[in-house]
Amino acid sequence: MSSKKVKSANDASSSRDGLGGGESVIADHGRRRSTCGYCKSPARSSISHGLSAETLTVSDYQALIDRGWRRSGCYLYKHEMDKTCCPSYTIRLKASDFVPSKEQQRVSRRLERFLDGKLDVQPSEQTVASSSLGTTRSEEKSNVEPVMDDLSKTIDQAVQLCIQSGEFPSNMQIPKASVKKVLCDKRKKLAKGPEQLLYTSNVAFPIAAAIKRTLTSEKVEMEGNKLSPETISEILLSAMSKLGEAPGISIKVSKGHINFLSASKASLSEKDVVPNETLHAKKDSRKLKLEMRLKRSSFDPEEHELYKRYQLKVHNDNPSHVVESSYRRFLVDSPLIYVQPSGENDEKVVPPCGFGSFHQQYRVDGRLVAVGVVDILPKCLSSVYLFWDPDYAFLSLGKYSAIQEINWVRENQARCPSLEYYYLGYYIHSCSKMRYKAAYRPSELLCPLRFKWVPFEVSRPLLDKKRYVILSDIKESQNQCSLLPHASETLATSEHEEMEQGETNDHFMGGSDDDEDEEMDESESEDAYIESDIDNIVIGLYGSQYRYKVKETPFRFRSLLKLIGCHQCLPLSNSHADNKTKRWIWKDLRKMLNPVGRKQLEPMLQSYRKVVGDELSERMVYEIR
Length: 625
Hints:
With about 625 residues, the protein is α+β, with helices and mostly antiparallel strands. It has helices at about 60-65, 100-115, 125-135, 135-140, 145-165, 185-190, 205-215, 215-225, 230-245, 275-285, 300-315, 325-330, 395-415, 455-465, 475-480, 485-495, 555-565, 580-595, 595-610, 615; strands at about 25-35, 45-55, 70, 75-80, 90-95, 180, 195-200, 250-255, 255-260, 290-295, 355-365, 365-375, 380-390, 420-425, 445, 455, 520, 540, 545, 620-625.
């Protein structure tokens, strides 16, 4: 029995879903093995279960992602958490409880300063961004940028010295040093002596964050103040003194900042500094406009071109992997049945855009700079993927888009009260590139066994010890990880049954349905086929449907065969099917219901019911072709 070919249902007629109208039609691919894009293991160590969907209601997909499923185009996958190399936990947060961190607030302010023309961009970034938007800010700073560039290089050399000496870990992601000019008014305000503050750098802060990401929580606690920006700035100051001093410039540190001062007030003439009044006047005249447009998922050549640039420059993809067909399968095709509000009653449960798959475009003065692919479901906005213009990497658009998507949920909850959560895809604790997702707080992870939501702060100590953890097993977690008493109390009060972006996404890293790197695993373990009640699973065959019965009586079997083609045959069957189709149905039903057919089919149904659950197996159509 072969699985039905997947086709996009994005253009299917709008369904009232009810939110239960329409139907989900899926085909089961069973266990899949593939190479892992996270741990880069050469073996096929990533183990998942795969389904393909012809159509899928938003209610059914909401239920699936709350059992650990995700989609890539029309392909659905769920990792076998106790067997796969990198267990992937579904992560979400309640939008109304979101508290942005200082770093996330800085991202928003940085973009606002860029739009206002107040952001000092590095030369390599400024050249591209300015030319694309018709600005000439780089010319204004031509006199001072060479000095700033030299100071940035000095800091980078100091960082390398610290790594070589062992003061900084060698495996951390090294942030690029950024040196900024101090404007005239601020110089006068900070002046305390003959020295004049010219430039400053806050590189100690991202270095502190980078070091913490490379250490476990226990080591972070042990190191204490050694990881503070203040201490790191002192270490860098010592390293820079070994490199030699820049002529006419002295270096001091203050509250984690590295400051460059000049003893001579005439060392930088006033003509090199743009007066604040003039600066503000020029910035106001070229203020940029950011637009966000949410549209139904569909192919857009402009989006595809941006996707190609992003994959080639950011992820170093092979050009043959970013062709239009693969892009369509990955980010355009969607099995979700679109639901739109139509009437007063619907306005209370469906947001103005409806439910389904969407692309959120971010445009700066008309130029497309980022696209967020999202699914909007009855209880959440689920981030699928984000791609952005590499020329605007300095704006951290992945983080910015996640904040905007959280705000979108907040704003639309007023009209659609059930819409409460923001899903960021999968979280892999052992993958450093995934750690940013847990920074959106307060987040929670899905227990892979009992499908209950557990606060991330409770889960983290467990995941520091083991990759695969049954998160909801509080007693076992306390025994294994010696959680503090208050942690179990937090878990007990937070295990509510409510629902909840990449960069990647997912912001966020997405899966792929390309078979060239995957293979079906025929050697299923015995525990995959534990005996279970598979009665009432909905079987689809040539457009006809019926509920499977383990103990089918000979009389019912003969009745099913006899009634094929009659108007009252099987629910939703095609009463106008031609005789050839009726003979196919008769033949395949006979195969399925005889002892040999049952022996082949029932293990498949048991595996399917295990991964999707009882309720969905009796609601979705298990398509056989």
